[in-house]
Amino acid sequence: MAERFQPTTQQSCTQLDLRTEKLKKIRDQKKVAWCYAFTAADMLTHVYDLPDKVSAADVAINYNDSDLGQLSRWLFRTFGRKPSQSDQDNFMMPHQTGFNKVALDRVMRDGYCPERVFPSESWVRMQREGDKWLESKTDLRTAMLEIYQLLKNQQDLTITNLPFYYHFKNVETPEEFYHLIKGQTASNFYSKLRKEVCQHDRIKFQDRFKTLMYIKDALVFRVLNKQLDLGRVAGIDYDSRLLTDARNGSVSLAELHTSSIVARRWDQESQQCQYLVRDSYGKQCSKYDVSYECLGGQVWIDEAKIYANLVSFVTVIK
Predict the structure, then answer these.
(1) Helices 35-47 and 100-110, packing angle to 10 deg
(2) What fold does the segment set 16-115+204-317 form as a domain?
């Protein structure tokens, strides 16, 4: 890893764009740390050419149920930074980060739930107003914090005093939501929720492909470009500070982030191969370093800058 990386030549850096119609709209994870799940969902949508986008929420909760996901949760809660009292509820949320490769393998094994069935950006909230229920949309972090309050205080909760509920396919009434809440921990609740919501819509893959995880070394871009040339979107694990500061050149595991690479081009000004990094924070460009060319939440970044912040990349191999 200490060796100087081998840059891609102009001849090898042919113009390439793997974005499809389904990958045009970028989803927004906001404050939920599921970047790996949004990236895995987009990669599967692309490689299988699916008719629907894969639900990133389903991918993340499935990962949380894995042995590695449960171990990560235990390690984080046992040895991680202890939260302040004001942050206690957020500390208990299933917002943990994860590994793209593990998430991909589990979805290919278990099948996927479409985004239209189990949304990943906002959920439908039903608020009790007298004898009526008023509908609104709530982002996932806020929804999960509210649900945690119900779970924490469920000993006093009844169907008649339920102040709100979240509406999904197959969980359409306050009674159905209440029965999912009662007797559950936060992690158990979300496992039951995804299974209940997606029970009739989970789609099995006819073919299960392999995943390649390549740890950074001097040849990493030679291997990465071979995958791109074969039409495979790559998910990269890297230091997220690169997005806001183009000068960042070190890796901190606390800043680890996952995005996908969906296009490539040669940049005459920097005399380097550039890659289009597709993030999962919506289409706004204000959060990125002003030196980057931003295309609705996707940014062109020089190869050398990506290398300095890179940990690994993952692709799905047919």
Answers:
(1) 50
(2) Cathepsin B; Chain A (3.90.70)
Per-residue pLDDT of 190-246, as tens digits, reads: 999 999 999 999 999 988 899 999 999 999 999 999 999 999 999 999 999 999 999
Q: Where do we find the tokens 């190869």?
A: 303
pTM over 0.90: yes
Token couple for 70: 């449960």
Q: What is the CA radius of gyration of the chain?
A: 21
Q: Closest by alpha carbon to 234, among 14, 21, 46, 15? A: 46
Q: Is 36 helix (H, G, I), strand (E, B) or coil?
A: helix
Host H or E run for residue 84: none
* Residue closest to 304 by CA, chosen among 11, 16, 7: 7
Which sequence spans correspond to the domains of the chain? 16-115+204-317, 122-198
Please, where are the H alpha helices in 215-313?
Answer: 220-229, 241-244, 303-309
